[in-house]
Amino acid sequence: MKHVFLLLALLVLSACTATQPLPESTSTQLKPPAYRLMAGDVIEIQITQRQDLSGEYTLGPDGSLFLQEIGRIQVSGLEQEEAEARILVALQELYSPVSVSLRIKRFQGSEFVVILGEVEQPGKYPIQNQLSLIQLIGEASGFTRDADLSRIKLVREDGTIEPIRINLKKLISNGDLKQNLVLLKGDLVVVPRRPLRMGFSSLNELLPLAQLLLLVLVTYNQTN
Fold first, then answer.
1. Fewest CB within a 10 Å sphere: which of 20, 32, 74, 128?
2. In this predicted structure, what is the pLDDT of residue 49?
3. Looking at the structure, do residues 149 and 180 belong to the same domain, yes or no?
């Protein structure tokens, strides 16, 4: 009986103390490529010297912005700062001094992917031009401490039955870029919890039981 108590106690204690936290991902430092404006996008512009021209605008079918007194300004294919600069140049032909700020209110051309599981901010994210898996994880503020980087699943909307299995540990340790897939419209990314982490979490809850077993063992030795 004494040996049974001792073996059980040692197993529980060793399991409870064997956890090693997974290194945090550095993907939070990565950002997706800048969005390029396209037809149907809604933008908000502020023109300090002409508040009557300030407001929200929807880009036309050709991707242009129409301003009264200015006419059409082609901004399709431009990044936010490039579009802002082009609008400023057009305004400077009539007004001086003048300043412009531009903000994208809605991405008409955005498609979405979903990431669930062990990331800090699971949810739906737009695909701005191209979005890789690492960039998506960066957008989701990185992994949680319980994330299993070796068993990430990618489910495609194209009717593929079997999910794509991704091992980001190969990318981190060996530079295997094949693991960093470019995401497509409707993709679902699932970052699972590490099985051992779940087991250890349960065993940690058994620590009081291990202490009780040791107490029983000590008491048993003292009385025999």
1. 20
2. 83
3. yes
Determine the Cα–Cα distance for residues 131 and 167; give it in Å rounded to an integer: 18
Among 80, 144, 99, smallest CA distance to 117 is for 144
- Residue in the block written with tokens 């990314």: 189
Instruction: Assess contact for 38 and 76: CB atoms under 8 A.
Output: yes
Q: pTM above 0.70?
A: no
Domain boundaries, position 168: 110-193
Q: What is the DSSP letter of 28?
A: G
Question: Cα–Cα distances in Å, from 73 out to 38, 56, 76, 80, 92?
Answer: 13, 15, 9, 14, 13
Same domain, 118 and 169: yes
**Residue 218: its pLDDT value, please?**
55
Tell whether 118 and 175 lie within a shared domain: yes
Q: What are the strands, taking DSSP E only, across the chain?
A: 42-47, 55-58, 64-67, 71-74, 100-106, 111-117, 123-127, 152-155, 164-166, 188-191
Q: Could you report the per-residue pLDDT of 88-125, keeping only the tens digit for each?
A: 999 998 888 889 999 988 876 667 889 999 999 898 88
137 and 187 inside one domain: yes
- Domain end, chosen from 58, 84, 106, is at 106
Report yes or no: 181 and 164 within 8 Å, Cβ to Cβ.
Answer: yes
- The DSSP call for residue 116 is E
Structure tokens at 218: 């000590």
Number of independent structural domains in the chain:
2
